[in-house]
Amino acid sequence: MKSKKKEVALIIIFLIIQSIMYVLVGMNKSYIHIDEAYSYGLSNYNRVEIEDNADFFNNWHNKEYYEDYLSVQKKEAGNFAPVYENQKNDVHPPLYYVFLRIAMEFTIGHFSKWTGITLNIIIYAFITVFMYVILKKLLQNEDNFKIKSMILAFMSSIILASLSNVIYIRMYALLTLEILITILLHIKLLESEKINFKLLLGIGLAVLTGILTHYYYLLYLVIVYFIFFIKLIKEKKLKELGYYTATIIISGILSLIIFPYSIEHIFFGYRGQGALSNFSNIKEILPGIKEQIRNLNYYVFHKLMYVILGIMLAVFVYNKIRKKSMCKLSKMEKEILMIIILPSLFFFFVSTIASPWKVLRYFVPICGLVFVFVIYWFYRLLRTAFNEKITNIVMCILFCGILVAPFTFKLEPELLYKDNKELVQELEGELNLPTIYLYNSQNGGFLNDILLFSKIDESYIAKDMECTEENIQGIVKDKDITKGIILFINDEQDKETLTETVKEALDFTNYEHLQRLFNCDVYYIY
Q1: What is the pLDDT of residues 338-385, one digit of tens each?
Q2: Confidence check: pLDDT of 334 > 80
């Protein structure tokens, strides 16, 4: 009992430390990605795109007009209908948006990045606990296996990939948790000597929630199922296989009953069609995989991946020369490793090929597992070559190196947007002036910058407008522009000519380029 209390106390301490780290990183998040804007909008707005409003273009709007898309208003409190309806018309299943909408109910009337970040911080507390329990199963034959499992679980939750997952307000943290729950329940299934219907119920619920969170969950599930299918066939446990298969099928059917639009999304939606077409674009597959491996090195191993692999190779060669054999793995260890690494590899490669962009977020749900797997084998190789004391010293040095590397190499979590902090403050403060967006609808991407427009008192989105002096003067008629205006221009336009035209139309003499954003530039004309 005393040992159990100590274990729980240590876990709580680690969870507090990681949560403090998440809050500190969250405080530095200064902007939101277009998909994060969609997360908020799809959880509460009455349509998918704010641009579909009849009055959106070519009208002056106040900041509340845009904030309405990003936040729940008093009259909308308790109305969860948009969550389902918007996902039906978009490309993702609805479960994550339900949780985000619940979080948004605590910030009625205004947008806050902390609703999404706090939700992910809570999810990551469970992720660390489940990772710890999985690692205990894997390391149970080692000395001091509990503290080793705890440290490794903690490390997997504070790598840059995990920090990015926490501050990125999307469904990937929830998907990460559901994958870990699926792994743990299947480990328990390995340990079970007979049919355990409570365990099968748990697996069924995990599968149901996983499918309703993100379709990429199926990438992990299909390999886990295949592993267990072969195992049960070999062991001639056909009855168990029948119950197990029925559990997976029933969960899939229930997910379709709850959200039948999944079929349309996967096979007929633009994302589904795009993913399928990517598999036929053979020339882009290898470059895409190389790019994601670079992201793996950056966000998971903090640019130390090749150093770690090099040391592992050197120790392996050393062991061969000294004729030292690896410690034999138990049957359980082999099976646990199999349901971690094989589905993770499949997830990595298929998501890389299928995804429209080669960025971290599409494989981030398996980053912690990849980190754990590599560090586990690093440890096993060292234990074969050296005694435990030397191994532990090397492991401490490695972990210190991983912790220090982001500061040494100036690495940051994905989509932190620290560079946008000053611009946000200026446009919310001293440069909160009438704002015109010369908007090329073929380039699109307004939601990339909706956060700024939710802070500017007055703004006008001029869609595909011929930029003449007369048109510009007509837009700002009756507006106080004595201190100048702010001008947004998105890409595929002659920005120099447009800024000169606006400057001359309003009798201004100067303009200053404030910042380059994702697909537009911002100018101060005065």
Answers
A1: 999 999 999 999 999 999 999 999 999 999 999 999 999 999 999 999
A2: yes
Q: What is the β-pairing status of strands 520-525 and 511-516?
A: antiparallel
Strands 485-490 and 520-525: antiparallel
- Is residue 296 within 8 Å of residue 155, measured between CB atoms? no
Select from 115, 105, 89, 99 the least CA-distant residue to 171.
99
Q: Which two tokens stand for residue 118?
A: 């706090």
Q: Which residues contact 71 (CB under 8 A, 6 or more apart)?
A: 40, 44, 104, 107, 108, 109, 110, 111, 112
The pLDDT assigned to 188 comes to 97
pLDDT in tens, 100-140: 999 999 999 999 999 999 999 999 999 999 999 999 999 99
274: tokens are 């795009």
| 178's tokens | 């559901």
Q: What is the Cα–Cα distance from 168 to 27, expressed in whole angstroms?
A: 13
DSSP letters, 382-406, are: HHHHS-HHHHHHHHHHHHHHHHHHH
Q: Which two tokens stand for residue 431?
A: 């440069």
CA pair distance 121, 259, nearest whole angstrom? 27
Report the alpha-carbon distance of residue 526 to residue 509 in Å, rounded: 6
Q: List beta partners, residue 462.
A: 438
| Burial of 486 per CB tally in 10 Å (0-12, 13-18, 19+) | buried
Domain residue spans of the chain: 2-25+118-408, 30-117, 418-525
**Which region holds residue 417: left if phi is over 0, alpha if psi is between -120 and 50, else beta?**
left
Global confidence as pTM: 0.96
How much of the chain is helix, strand and coil, in % rounded to 5? 65, 5, 25
- Kindly give the pairing relationship between strand 458-463 and strand 511-516: unpaired
